Each structure stands twice: as C-alpha cells, then as structure tokens.
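Continuing the series of single-chain predictions for the mutant panel. This is the parent chain; the variants come on the following pages.
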Amino acid sequence: MQEIWTVLGLALLPAVGNLAGGLIAEFTGTPKARLNKALHAASGIVLAVVSIEIMPGALSVLSGWAVGVAFGLGGIAYIVIEAAVDRVQQSQGQTSNASRGIWMIYIAVSIDLFSDGLLIGTGSAVALSMAVVLALGQVLADAPEGYATIANMKEKEVPRTQRMMLSALFFIPVLSAAIVAYYLLRNQSEALQMTGLVFAAGLLTVAAVEDMLNEAHETAGDTHGSIVAFIGGFVLFTFVSAGLGS
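Parent structure:
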C-alpha cells in the first residue's frame, strides 16, 4: 500500500512542473511571439518523449509490425477525440477556431500528462528507481506546456478563474494514468506494457504536430527563434533524460 502512495507522489511532479509554467504565464506578460516559442518548445519536448523515452524500448521488445499498429491506433484515437470535441462545441454553438484551439491544446497537454503518468506507473512496475528517473525528467519537460496553455487561454481572453481551474485539473490525467498503470500493468508482460506506451506515442505525436504547432503558427509568425525553441525543447529533454540515466 505504501508503494502506491510513492508512485502517486512521483506522478504529481509532472503536474507540478506544468502548473509552475502556467503560473509564470498567469502573472507575467504573454506576448504572442513568446507564446509561439513556448508552443514550439513544448512540441519539441513531446517528440523527444516519443523518440527518446518510448520508441527505443518498444522496438527492443515489439516487432516493427506491432509498433506500427499500436502507433496508428493511438493516432486514430486522437482523431476520434478531436471529432468529439468538435461535436460538443457545435452542439453548444462554439464553432470558432479560437475556441477549438483552446480545447485541443488543453487535450494535447492532458494526453501528454496521461502519458507521463503511464510512464511513471509502468516504470514503477519494473523498478521504483526507474519511476523516480522518469518523474524527475518530466518536471522540466512539462513547464513549457503549462506556460503555453495558460498563455494561450489569456490570449483568447478566457477568465482567470476558469484558467486556474483548468490548470488544476491537469493533476487528474497524470494521477489516473499512474494508478491504471500500477494496478493493471505491473503484473503484465513487458510486450503489453510497451504496446500501451506506443499507443500513447501515437496520441502524443499527433497532438504535437497537428495541434500544438498549428496553434503556434496561428498565434504568431514563425521566426528563427521559433525553430531554436523547437530544437531546444527536444535537446533539453534529451539532456535531462541522459543526465538522469533514463
């Protein structure tokens, strides 16, 4: 019983990093150029999570066919989520691109945090030390996403109370994923665990490429600084991962 509380404590760290980034955006200026760079950095981090943390381990356990199918199903799942959001907004008369952009960015970050929880929960099934490494690595990685999410909502004039409530709700996906992974995956085969991670990779990749970057381009025109931010996000997560021995 004590171990699950340790895992949940570790799973809170990515959400805390996300919240810290959001608070910076909440109480400082959020010019469009900075938001553009933050979204690029967050996208680079997400792609680093997929390529550095998930894929190498998956390919060492699963066949290329299995990886392709799991990744594809994850991408399709994101399309289903996107369609559901559009349907709900249409039923409520929220058909503007601004409204849709807010919620798809929020869902993208929620999916990333869910993946963080899955990584931590699954890592704890192998060794608690692995869960610690994954949790510490995600703290810095999620800060730009939190900043970008709150800055985006400020730019779209979402009320502060609603912004803070949504930011607080980011704790739900990471904790729920850690619980699911801990109880359902800890006694399963390594192949099944890796299949779940690759499925999450499909979700994350579509979120980063189709929604985070698209929102960045709509917020402000890209500059060389935007490219540097994207590269910097990828490199930052790679260095953090390598430095912590992930």
